[in-house]
Amino acid sequence: QSALTQPASVSGSPGQSVTISCTGTTSDVGGYKFVSWYQQHPGRAPKLLIYEVNNRPSGISDRFSASKSGNTASLTISGLQAEDEADYYCCSYSSIATVAVIFGGGTKVTVL
Amino acid sequence: EVQLVESGGGLVQPGGSLRLSCAASGFTFSGYWMSWVRQAPGKGLEWVAIMKEEGTERYNGDSVKGRFTISRDESSLYLRMNSLTPEDSALYYCARSRSNLLGPRYFFDSWGQGTLVTVSS
Questions:
Q1: pLDDT at B3
Q2: Which of A56, A110, B30, B118 would bridge with A60, disulfide CB 3.0–4.6 Å?
Q3: What is the Cα–Cα distance from B87 to B42, expressed in whole angstroms?
């Protein structure tokens, strides 16, 4: 199954907001609530930011928010900070097989 | 504190086999679905396999079907990898998934630090 589509990179200045899109199909993003987002700093394991479309785990800053419309999910980082510079991945359950999980290709966020 | 510690990676020749392990602690291992997720050097994340709490269900991604087998015991997760190719070279992460009465909730709330597998002659 193909990866979900994310922009390769986005950038913003400190304090600004950036939004990362994640486009799939009705068999994944558009059909289920199982969309999640992960942050990964270089050399580190991924970290869960958002689960089930728009829920933040405890300890995750409310500067991170997410939504879904149709086949596209979005992650918004508000009040951009230097520490937000990282790779971000979306993820979704996919019904293309009996059980499948697919990730987006990843988006590099650069803080200018 | 939740801890997932992978081991077993290394250099293996094409066509060879390897068994990865993930030792879990700090939570009730038998209460969670568990997955393997891999990341080739400089590339994105790819889900590999998932297994139900009691081990009664298991599912693989298309790219590893028929070659990789996920398994578990009371406190560890395993991945048996056969017929390895250079395309299987990656950092392999063990990851935990919450569930409810309907099944896994398909997000990964805890990750290990990974174990590196290199397939090369």
A1: 97
A2: A56
A3: 13
pLDDT at B79 over 80: yes
A110 contacts A9 by C-beta, under 8 angstroms: yes
| Mean pLDDT calculated for residue range A23-48 | 96
From residue A103, how far is each of A10, A63, B1, B37, B48 by CA, in Å?
18, 22, 27, 10, 11
Does residue B53 have a pLDDT over 80? yes
Average pLDDT over residues B30-52: 96
**What is d(CA B79, CA B71) in angstroms, rounded to the nearest whole number?**
6
Interface of B with A in 10-69 (CB under 8 A): 35, 37, 44-47, 50, 59, 61-62
pLDDT of A1 reads: 58
pLDDT at A5 over 90: yes
Query: How many residues comprise chain A?
Result: 112
Any B CB within 8 A of A47 CB = yes
SS (H, E, C) A3-24: CEECCCEEEECCCCCEEEEEEC
CA distance B49 to B81: 11
Helix (H, G, I), strand (E, B) or coil at A16: coil
How many Å lie between the alpha carbon of B68 and the closest alpha carbon of chain A? Answer: 15
Mutate to test the interface with A, among B1, B60, B106, B115 (most CBs of A within 10 A): B106
What the block records as the tokens of A75 is 């992650």
